Amino acid sequence: MEKKVDSTSDFFDKDKVINDEQKIILVTGGAGFIGSNFIRYLVQNYPNFKVINFDKLTYAGNLNNLITIEDNKNYVFFKGDVVDPKDVKTAFEQFSPDYVVHFAAESHVDKSLINPDIFLQTNVLGTQILLNYSREHKVQNFVQISTDEVYGSISNDLNVNEDARLEPNNPYSASKASADLLLRVAYQTYGQRINIIRACNNFGPYQFPEKLVPVIIHNALNKLDIPVYGDGKNIREWIHVDDHCRAIDVIMQTGKSGETYNVGTGNKWRNIDLVEHILNKLDVNSNLISYVLDRQGHDIRYSVDSSKIRNELGWKPQIDFEEGLNQIIAWYSNHMDWVEEITTGKYMSYYNDIYKPRLMETQ
Ligand code: NAD
Ligand code: TYD
After folding, report:
1. Distances (CA, A) of 96 to 16, 17, 93, 136
2. Does some domain include residue 2?
3. Residue range 68-86: mean pLDDT, rounded
4. What is the number of the ligand 2 atom nearest to the C-alpha of 295?
């Protein structure tokens, strides 16, 4: 039988290694875009923290994203599915996490319009299963990585705060809003310690090239058409993934239990303006822009009021947007092989190549 835990150290001899200074963090979806950036951030900033990456490795999960820290003794990968209670139970029994930071999700709006069911399974049922075991194991804080998309489309003169109604318009955002409501139940009814984080659109390294920013950069570098949905006037608010990771850290450790925090920058762009801006930076002709059929139910504008996290927890974004964008453009330009492996599907053999031999050794 395949062993699922890839432990190469005596890290899990808890009596031996754990003392009061240490925290065990179970990160779900840690092989995806934001989760992998968050794990790197934790491992680099908190040598006393032990980080478990619980991930199913769907098409969006890529262990290559963690290659720079995969040998760190404080990091371990656990291949598991949040929708499978057996996997979740095993992970909780084995690691007894202090904190759970729940990123694992189906995350792409366009895919949700075609196949909503998997979004409900992973994003809603998966969250409930994790909440069940978090309650049983008395987790100190369950941090739900939600999204500003749960508020739906926001009219031009407004920034929504955390009390705004949830008015999602696609299966992805509806599934995320549903999960947020389950968090509410966990807090109100079962007394679990939880936080919900609703960030705006992230950009950064290791983002799967199905989302706007990597699509623009990848296609521009390869002189491919850049699809712009509808009239391109939809507005998104953008945050560098490192600023989001800092916000998650602050909330995980100092957030008031039961509270929701918006995370935003105020940095808003019409899609078409962002496309043209990036093409300018790359010195690529804008005739690559190709207007395509609009997304169904395409939200016009997202815009959050993030004064709560700023005033109450002292967080603010640190990365200048232009500098962040330059850094990301350089990153994708220097990691064409990473994008290539994803677009060809080659990255999917990474788990088998790297982990199967190690697993065989421990059996
Ligand atoms: P992603 O698609 O890049 O990564 C998702 C990860 O979850 C992958 O590693 C995948 O393998 C894993 N996963 C999927 N189903 C799973 C399952 N059943 N069991 C275990 N693991 C599973 O997503 P992302 O862009 O990094 O987003 C992460 C989280 O942040 C999501 O919850 C998303 O809703 C939220 N979010 C994203 C953004 C954004 O701009 N990308 C903004 C706000 C919030
Ligand atoms: P996306 O990155 O999918 O994030 P989300 O839909 O979760 O905000 O899309 C960002 C915006 O860019 C959204 O308005 C849809 C638009 N878009 C395009 O115009 N072309 C594309 O190829 C993609 C992927 C998105």
Report:
1. 15, 13, 6, 10
2. no
3. 97
4. 15
In a domain, 3, yes or no: no
Q: Tell me if 67 is assigned to some domain.
A: yes
Please indicate whether residue 59 is annotated as part of the active site: no
**Counted domains in the chain:** 1
Q: How far apart are CA 153 and CA 146, in angstroms?
A: 16
Range of the domain at 350: 8-362
- For residue 82 and ligand 1, the question of a CB distance below 6 A is answered with yes
For ligand 2, atom 4, name the residue with the nearest CA: 211
Q: Phi and psi of 157, rounded to 5°?
A: -95, 10
The answer to the question of residue 224 being in a domain is yes
- Is 172 tagged catalytic? yes
Rounded CA-CA distance 99/22 in Å is 11
Note the pLDDT tens digit of each residue in 151-186.
999 999 899 999 999 999 999 999 999 999 999 999
Which residue in 138, 155, 151, 157 sits closest to 260, CA to CA? Answer: 151
Give me the pLDDT at residue 21, please: 58
- Are the C-beta atoms of residues 24 and 95 closer than 8 Å to each other? yes
CATH code, domain carrying 96: 3.40.50.720
Write the DSSP symbol of residue 301.
B
User: Which atom of ligand 1 lies nearest, measured to the CA of 208?
Assistant: 3
* Helices within the chain (DSSP H only): 14-17, 33-45, 85-95, 109-114, 116-119, 126-136, 171-188, 212-221, 241-254, 271-282, 307-313, 321-334, 336-344, 350-362
Q: How far is the CA of 89 from the centre of ligand 1 (A)?
A: 21
Query: Whole-prediction pTM value?
Result: 0.94
* CB distance 265 to 243 below 8 Å: yes
